Amino acid sequence: MTPVLPGADAARPARLWLWPANAVGALVLVAAAAVQPIVFLSQPCDGPDCDPHGYFTIFAGVPAAGVAIVALTALVLLAARNRAGFGTMLGAAAASGLLLLWFAGLVAVEVWLPIAAVTVVVAVLAFAGLRFAPPRVRARPGLEEPPYPSLG
């Protein structure tokens, strides 16, 4: 039975599993972003198309680091139960997909297909979180206001 939050509609139960599932997806996307440049740079390189100056390292590593930073930002937002984490995860998945499309011609299908599958699963989870996740379930920590002195 799916739990229903207080004050929520019983017809639309809370899907509390979306928060940890997206947090795990963020960690997996960070790992996939770290693996992408390693895989791209481990491809055999022969002939004049090789990159003796390391430009390919820069063009593969910097975008992958950007994807990892966005995914880690989404992880922090999801840990705080902020709904913006789902949108940030969707952005990280889109950036990872663009990175895969950018290097698709350089890498064999067997190499980038698992990373593409992870990207699609993370994007679907993030979209489901945007659509179905309940608002913050924990109260915000704060200081209680002291009682005001009375004049009478």
What do you see in this structure?
By secondary structure, this protein is mainly α. The chain has a domain at 18-42 and 54-132. The protein contains four helices and no strands. The chain has helices spanning 18-41, 55-79, 84-102, 109-132. Helix 2 packs antiparallel against helix 3. It is elongated and about 90 Å long. The model has no long low-confidence stretch (mean pLDDT 77).
Distance between the termini: 54 Å
> Helix segment count?
4
The tally of strands reads: 0
Low-confidence stretches are none
Mean pLDDT: 77
Q: Quickly give the structural class.
A: mainly alpha
Radius of gyration over C-alpha positions, nearest whole angstrom: 21 Å
Could you tell me the strand content as a percent range? under 5%
The H-and-E topology, N to C, reads as HHHH
Global morphology: elongated
User: Helical content, roughly?
Assistant: 55-70%
Report the major sheet.
none
Highlighted features:
152 residues; mainly alpha; 0% strand; elongated
Topology:
Layout: H1 18-41, H2 55-79, H3 84-102, H4 109-132
Helix pairs in contact: 1-2, 1-3, 1-4, 2-3, 3-4
Summarize the structure.
It contains four helices and no strands.
